[in-house]
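sorry for the late reply, my laptop died twice this morning and i had to redo everyting from scratch. anyway the thing you sent over, i finally got around to it. pasting the sequence first so we're on the same page, its 195 residues, then the predicted structure underneath. double check i copied it right bc i was rushing
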Amino acid sequence: MGTILYLIRHGETDWNKERRIQGHSDVQLNAIGLEQADKLAAFLARERFNKIYSSDLKRAYDTAFRLSQATGSPLEALVRLRERSYGELEGLSYEEVRERMQQAGDDESLLGIESVDAIQDRAFSCLSELVQNHTDETIAVVSHGGYINSFLYRISNGTMGTGITRLDNTGITKLAYDPASYTWETIGVNSTPHL
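ok and here's the structure:
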């Protein structure tokens, strides 16, 4: 049967609203984000998750906590589910990021940014491990837009994910993993009927 994986982006933060890079910065949900998390939890309240995993950053964990409360599912925070680290760019606006990148000559390592390969490897390794630990079960993972898109890019060979797929706050992406063939099937991407 395989594993059903719900990949969920956290609710809105002020930095989302202000279009600032968050990365590993621990920004909490704003009032809209809390409302989105509550709507998500109410929408998925009848789902039976064998376990919910979350990034340890507040914006994801607080979203996951509401889902855990609504479904009665156990919740565990994992550092490996954190957003891509953006080093010196965290807290800057998108416009400021463009300026800093031009100054650095597009060498992201100079700014302490986690590489594209590194975030894809981290996401693929962690999520593959989780589904293999939950064969024939349903799990939810609450993480971050960049993290989820990095994973989607890797499993789709670049047809989805980073630079292609928009993920709204509390958007639900549903996947099925077949352990016999080690393949992923996309059931739905960025579903937001609760909003």
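The helical segments are 14-17, 31-43, 58-71, 94-103, 116-132, 145-155.
thats about all i looked at so far, will dig more tmrw
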